[in-house]
Specification:
The structure holds 2 protein chains of 2 kinds. By secondary structure, chain A is mainly α. Helices cover 78% and strands 0% of the residues of chain A. Chain B has helices at residues 3-24, 44-57, 70-78, 91-99, 146-157, 171-179, 190-196, 226-237, 239-247; strands at residues 33-40, 61-68, 85-88, 108-120, 138-141, 166-168, 185-189, 200-203, 212-219. The chains are: A mainly alpha, B alpha/beta.
Chain lengths: 269, 253
């Protein structure tokens, strides 16, 4: 089933190669510029800044929790979309996709109206239990989950659809109930795709900025993640913003490379 | 919250520069010119009104206004954003621009702003004095922004030990969260409190005499409309400009 590396049908046409090259430049030039502008001489002492480490730690912890939440909620949702035929399924899928195309700052406003101190849900929560969500790390996780969940659902649904459904049926005929089929057949078969979806969700959560700063706020230690720290630093110290950005870049690349081995490697096998 | 608008701003500014380049030549169109003014978020109401006044005085000119935190705008100007005028909410921020050689002409002082404490209408958290901030959910700007630097000075002067719950990136974000009652109180400029009208209640801040931010305006080196840029500065310093600014809660020199 290989399309690449197959029999050659002539040279790759220039009208495709040129835009491809241009696309590559658009993608890589800003990243290379970031590396070029990095103040390497003062880098070690800047990285040792407790504020940076604090923001990095908060980012990693919240993004990880958010992506696990996405798995917990997104896998069942994806399964419903992939395996259950019901009226309004395409409508449901469209609804799931809405946050995907929503500008993040709008997502922040939406979250505020829902879970803010006077939000539709946040108001009763505050009056009834004395719980307020904004300005807490919980709000950061909530914002990240909100924006990352569609990515996870859509890609996991694709993975579930990609598995051979006949095997589900075989297992069912052999007496497995629907949960057993899900846990023992469907999920193991779709595991590489689920992993890829999870990584995508994690990356999206790690980079979340607009919804976070609108809904959760910006305070070092509790709600200041790497992206909000970059923005705050840009206000006073552009060099610090470059350092923080470089760090984000390295973390993202490192984690993607690491997970690639484990998950995408399997998928390619 | 500002990444998307900032990116959009860059695109708009680029487009403006492109248009402006075409129109100054007067080759096509109705020979319209566009004056791009970058201003601190706290100037939103005043500059919007003055923009209309400016367009009345200059029928062939469109005024394009962009509001953001002073520091963000200053950073964009230093990086070469094509704009004609910059107005910052403090001296320190303007200095970073003049030191980078991005201004054309000496910055002029045109307004002053003091800081007040605002609480949501009805004051649900019962904040009666500045000292009541202790233990409350209140907001201020990031200390790198002029409004945040001033807020920190006042909090220290009054020995408030509870830190703000969040350091918002500009003063309008602080104000809006107070208006929405997403915070018990917020430190904003007197002009912002005026702009919010009866959606907030205003409390004086003790030991705040002399704690004012000075607003500076300067034409920019990148400007292709030096004369219009000077006209804008003149408008700010004119009686009309001062009347608008005072009406909006600013002090004027």
């Amino acid at each position: 089933m290989s399309a690449t590396g197959g029999p050659s049908v002539g040279r790759a046409p220039l009208r495709l190669l040129l835009p491809a090259l241009l696309g590559l430049v658009v993608l890589l030039a800003p990243l290379l510029a970031l590396v070029a502008r990095t103040p390497w001489a003062t880098l070690p002492q800047r990285l040792a800044d407790p504020g940076i480490l604090q923001a990095l730690r908060l980012s990693l912890v919240t993004a990880t929790i958010a992506s696990l939440l996405c798995l917990l909620l997104g896998l069942p949702l994806a399964w419903v979309l992939a395996r259950i035929a019901f009226r309004g399924r395409s409508l449901l899928r469209a609804l799931v996709t809405v946050p995907l195309v929503l500008p993040p700052v709008v997502a922040g406003v939406a979250l505020l109206t829902a879970f803010g101190r006077n939000g539709v849900l946040g108001g009763p929560l505050r009056d009834g239990f004395g719980l307020t969500i904004p300005y807490t790390s919980t709000a950061v996780v909530l914002a990240q989950t909100f924006v990352a969940l569609p990515f996870v659902v859509i890609s996991v649904e694709g993975a579930l659809r990609g598995t051979n459904q006949d095997l589900d049926d075989v297992a069912a005929v052999l007496g497995a109930d629907r949960w057993t089929v899900f846990a023992r057949v469907t999920v193991p078969l779709a595991l590489p795709g689920i992993g890829a979806g999870l990584v995508l969700g994690w990356a999206r959560a790690l980079g979340e900025f607009g919804a976070t700063i609108t809904f959760a706020g910006n305070y070092p230690g509790s709600t200041q993640t790497m992206p909000t720290a970059v923005y705050a630093a840009l206000q006073s110290d552009p060099e610090a913003a470059v350092v923080l950005s470089l760090m984000m870049l390295l973390v993202s690349v490192a984690v993607l490379a690491l997970l690639r081995e484990r998950w995408f490697g399997q998928a390619a096998r | 919250m500002r990444a998307v608008p900032a990116a959009a701003l860059m695109i708009i500014l680029t487009a403006v520069a492109g248009c402006a380049g075409g129109t100054t030549g007067g080759a096509d169109g109705a020979g319209r010119e566009t004056l791009t003014v970058l201003a601190a978020a706290s100037l939103t109401e005043s500059f919007t009104e003055l923009g209309d006044a400016f367009e009345e005085q200059h029928p062939a000119v469109d005024v394009r206004l962009a509001f953001d935190s002073s520091a963000t705008l200053a950073g964009q100007v230093v990086e070469g954003a094509p704009a004609d005028v910059l107005a910052t909410a403090d001296v320190r921020t303007m200095r970073t621009v003049t030191e980078a050689g991005a201004t054309a002409g000496e910055p002029r002082l045109f307004a002053q702003n003091s800081m007040v404490l605002v609480v949501p209408a009805g004051n649900p958290a019962g904040i009666e004095r500045f000292a009541d901030l202790e233990g409350s959910t209140y907001l201020a700007c990031v200390t790198s922004a002029p409004c945040g630097a001033l807020a920190r000075t006042l909090l220290e002067a009054n020995q408030v030990a509870t830190p703000p719950k969040s350091l918002e990136v500009d003063v309008k974000a602080v104000l809006n969260k107070v208006v929405l009652d997403e915070a018990d109180a917020g430190l904003v400029y007197a002009s912002d409190a005026t702009a919010a009208g009866d959606r907030v209640q205003v409390l004086e801040i003790p030991k705040s005499s002399g704690a004012v931010n000075s607003y500076l305006v300067a034409p920019l080196r990148e400007s292709e409309h030096a004369r219009l840029a000077r006209d804008w500065v003149d408008l700010l310093l004119s009686d009309r400009g001062r009347a608008v600014l005072r009406h909006d809660g600013f002090g004027t020199p």
